[in-house]
Design goal:
InterPro entries: Homeodomain-like_sf. It comes from Chryseobacterium sediminis. By secondary structure, this protein is mostly helical. It contains 8 helices and no strands.
């Protein structure tokens, strides 16, 4: 089964899916959010949420919905022209090259299904060539050992 691409973010649907996986009762959700059932049902149709609401969903369902957006940024955002060393900011700085297992699997699946070439992956996602080849080697070793 093919996973949805990270470009297809519909957070309301993802929340509904997580509720289904966890078996959380609608009455518990309503109590947590202090709202009615129809308001919760309406949230399922929303493509995005205010960050405070998303944080509440993340806590209730014990799932980091913010990471979905982080993965999207890492995979699809253009390289930053501002170097953290050249600017001063009160905001925390993050490394762009922190890849989750889901992201690695997504990238390797693109290559395996011949949706993108290795060169396209390197250029479009800014993944270092050595990193990509380490993933491919590790993936192939894991695949052949099972």
């Amino acid at each position: 089964m093919r996973q949805k691409k990270f470009t297809d973010i519909h957070i309301g649907t993802m929340i509904r899916d997580r509720i289904s996986e966890c078996g959380v009762e609608l009455s518990r959700i309503c109590n947590f959010f202090k709202c009615r059932e129809d308001e919760i049902e309406e949230m399922y149709s929303q493509k995005s949420f205010d960050t405070e609401i998303l944080l509440k969903w993340s806590k209730l369902l014990q799932y980091d919905f913010f990471r979905v957006y982080s993965m999207h940024l890492i995979l699809y955002s253009p390289p930053c022209s501002l170097s953290p060393n050249n600017t001063s900011s009160k905001l925390p700085t993050f490394r762009k090259n922190v890849y989750t297992q889901e992201m690695i699997e997504f990238i390797l699946e693109l290559i395996e299904n011949k949706e993108k070439t290795k060169l396209q992956i390197i250029e479009e996602y800014g993944i270092p060539k050595t990193t990509l080849f380490k993933w491919i080697t590790k993936y192939n070793e894991t695949k052949t050992s099972h």
